[in-house]
Design goal:
It catalyses: O-phospho-L-threonyl-[protein] + H2O = L-threonyl-[protein] + phosphate; O-phospho-L-seryl-[protein] + H2O = L-seryl-[protein] + phosphate. Its EC number is 3.1.3.16. This protein is an alpha/beta fold and 347 residues long. It is built from nine helices and twelve strands. The strands form three sheets. A five-stranded parallel β-sheet has the order 10-9-5-11-12. A four-stranded antiparallel β-sheet has the order 2-1-4-3. The chain has a three-stranded antiparallel β-sheet with strand order 6-8-7. It is globular. The protein starts with 9 loop residues before the first helix and ends in a 12-residue tail after the last helix.
Length: 347
């Protein structure tokens, strides 16, 4: 995700902007360096793509008090001491720009970008305002994707029935997951089945959307599933959000997504998880491959795995919803008569 200059001092804010770009580290970034150089800011001038080198945030973990050195000592053009930093973001209570301690946290925690990372409300509004202009310029919206029962189905190994034991001999290699669909993930003690059509879905959706994973599962699980779906980080980069990253217990919210709500769509099988964003939600038909998944939702019948069957790729849920996404994208960019920046995907 490419971000413009911060409203705080330009020299140190370049470091902050560079940090965000590297932290998100998306393989599906909005544009190539050449495209970014051609993108113009509101005043018509070319936005510089020059970013100063900033040390990896691992240095913060090693020495709690070294943050200011990362941004001040390395920045030879530091602003006068009389200027006041607005503390746009912090890591471990230290401002990511000036290194001073930030005692009062306000804004949004973005732990999926970096542990203990926060953006204040003004800065996250600025980031979203900048990014939506870049997204619309490149004809992209935002897409937030649930994992379980939407893109895949997982079961604990000890929950597999005798009729599912044959699956152990049919798993695909974790060394090269790009062509596989059934995986035994021993580190999680789970068997995972990717939903039919999911790879083509992700490829085509990535051309229209900046995509996020958002699951109510634990972060370790979310990252393992992301490796199966996107081993080269082409689609999600580090935009993998788990229940540990949300701001409300048992709820998901777009407040932790660095995208405008007016340009964001959500695919999820659980409506109640998005009580504040139902207008953004496209409700998915649940994918029940394993017996334990059927029982979880009160279905006392043989599962797809026990029937040695699966969803149809060309006629399944993901193929169907991809067509909905294509139509929505087309209507937003090519059929509306409103100014592009005023359009709302929820309308």
């Amino acid at each position: 995700m490419s971000l413009a200059e911060s409203p705080v001092h330009s020299s140190s804010s370049d470091d902050f902007t560079g940090f965000l770009e590297r932290a998100l580290g998306s393989g599906s970034s909005h544009s190539s360096p050449d495209e970014e150089a051609d993108y113009e800011s509101d005043d018509g001038s070319e936005r510089s793509t020059k970013r100063r080198k900033v040390e990896n945030l691992g240095s913060i973990d090693k020495t709690h008090g070294s943050t200011s050195q990362v941004f001040v000592e390395e920045n030879s053009e530091a602003s006068p001491k009389t200027d006041i930093c607005t503390h746009p973001g912090s890591v471990k209570d230290l401002c990511i720009v000036c290194g001073q301690r930030v005692d009062e946290k306000s804004g949004v925690p973005l732990g999926y970008i970096h542990k203990d990372f926060w953006l204040n409300n003004d800065e996250i509004d600025r980031v979203r305002s900048t990014d939506i202009k870049k997204s619309l310029h490149l004809k992209k919206l935002y897409l937030v994707l649930d994992l379980d029962h939407t893109l895949l189905n997982s079961t604990h190994l000890n929950h597999m029935t005798a009729e599912e034991e044959y699956l152990h001999s049919q798993t695909d290699s974790l060394q090269d997951v790009s062509n596989g669909s059934l995986f035994r993930v021993d580190v999680m003690h789970m068997m995972t089945k990717l939903r039919p059509f999911v790879r083509k879905f992700l490829k085509e959706a990535s051309e229209m959307f900046e995509m996020y994973i958002y699951t109510m599962g634990e972060r370790a699980y979310a990252l393992e599933m992301a490796k199966l779906l996107d081993p080269r980080k082409e689609y999600f980069g580090d935009r993998v959000i788990s229940r540990d990253d949300g701001t409300q217990k048992h709820q998901k919210g777009l407040d932790v997504v660095l995208g405008q709500e007016s340009a964001a769509l959500i695919l999820d099988d659980t409506e109640n998880a998005w009580t504040k964003h139902k207008d953004n939600l496209i409700l998915m038909e649940r994918y029940h491959f394993f017996r334990s998944s059927c029982h979880q939702f009160g279905f006392h019948c043989k599962s797809l795995s026990e029937l040695k069957s699966d969803e149809s790729e060309p006629e399944g849920a993901l193929a169907t919803v991809l067509e909905v996404l294509k139509r929505t994208h087309n209507m937003f960019f090519y059929e509306s008569k409103d100014n592009l920046i005023d359009r709302d995907v929820r309308c």
